[in-house]
Amino acid sequence: MSERAAIRIRGLEVVLGGRVILEGVDLDVPEGSITALIGPNGAGKSTLLKAILGLVPYRGSIEMRGPREGRKPRLGYIPQALSIERENPIRMSDFLLLSSQRRPLWLGVGRARRRAVLEALERTGAHRLADHPIGKLSGGELQRVLLAKIVLERPDIVLMDEPASGIDIAGEAMFCGLVQELHDETGFTLVLVSHELSVVSHHATYVVCLNRRVKCSGAALETLTPENLRELYGPQVGLVRHQEEFKEGMHCSRL
Amino acid sequence: MSGAAEWLYSAACGAVKALLPFEWAQKSFMHTPFLTIVVVALLTAVVGTIVVNARMAFFTSAIGHSAFSGVAAGILMGITDPGRLTLVMVGFGCLAAVLITWLGRRSSVPPDSLVGVVQTLAVAAGIVVITAFRFQRTEQFLFGDVLFATKGELGALFLTFLVLLVLAAPSYNRLLLIGLNSDLAQAWGVRTRAYEYLFAAAVAVVVMMCVNAVGVLLVTAMIIIPAAAGRNFAWSAGSMFWMSLLVSLVSGVGGFAGSWYLKAAAGATIVLAAGVLFALSYVVFALRRRTMRRRSVQEGDERA
Which of A54, A142, A143, A211 is 20 to 30 Å from the Cα of A134, by its Cα? Predict the structure, then answer.
């Protein structure tokens, strides 16, 4: 992990519908880190991701940099839940090419691209669904497809908003393991919103505590202290470590 | 018409005579209206796929109705020449399309209500001016009359089709993605705002260019029905486009021929033909859904 900031946020303020969601947010997300955003419901975690993506209006500055100087970093995004119209006939393999293939899909897909898509789907365990209509997929299946997009595009910065929330326990373990594997392979910067503190303590290298403002931030082990968590969530909250799962190194454990 | 355009027109007329062994297809005065319908079918199919996918049917209807205000603006500017009036309508339609898109991105009013407000205001303003100035061609703008289409109008429509195809082809995949989920499209690096404005303007150009041929009321139907039917027949993103194009052409040609034998208005007969294909597409869609459900139950049983 380098000391450079992949995302540099200064004086961020987001007001939606007259309500202040975020104010005075100053944050440096270290390049190549797995940065977890934690905080109670309504703390502005998802809004912060949306501000980074330019999906909500904001004041302040957000600068992003990738490994290639002078070039905008490529972004990947896995939202909490993706709403797709149920009767849409677009196939899953086509869906993955919608943003990256210039040639209209009515003129077909090149062999090399088709192979790359199938390999990405195979890696995320979704290859059997390649020809399924996107509208028919379950929430968990859609998350796998979005992960396949990350395998396919190799972005510089990946933003995930509670990505495992729609997946069953077995799928969640596989999902988290694969995310860790991809991160180790490509070194992208991952910003992850999660309510699962055990996931955070297991995978994150950097933690940001958010509740409208940044309450604390730093290396995971130094930041996830009982004092910080109590201040963020209230006096009843503590971190329970699942030692066996920690040792295996590939599982997302639950609190 | 230039030499090349005249040659292209003659070749197209020759093809109509040779390929369609019907009485009406052999009459030279039917060639320009028929070719106009073919180009309108192509134009509406190209934008229709995206319109239906992005749930912009009501938006398209509003743009069609803003033709009334376009005509009114033309009258107030003292323009009577049909060609120049069409240009004013195109400009007015683009303005309405951009305004609706701009308001939609900023306003807290639900998008369909916003479109409804703009549509009714555009119609009302147009009708006030049209009736006050005793404009004679209102019926043509409502229902169109393709039998009076000129070679010049056909040429303008064909040129619009070529420009649209060149612009829309590289944007097709991204417009589909924006229609599916705009936030995801932006997160994946698509310039959603630019695409939304450009596509809204493209819909306005297509609608206004087609108004003379099929009328305000029917142009919306020509954009939506074949695309909706094509989507029911489709099994992928690519087939959605081709099936829409096929339904549009079949209903265009079939409806035009039907209107000759029924001695009825061509535009309305074309839309009815598209309606029949839409009903058929629903049957195909329902059968396919039943097969998928059966297969899904079987797979579930095997897993269990």
Answer: A54
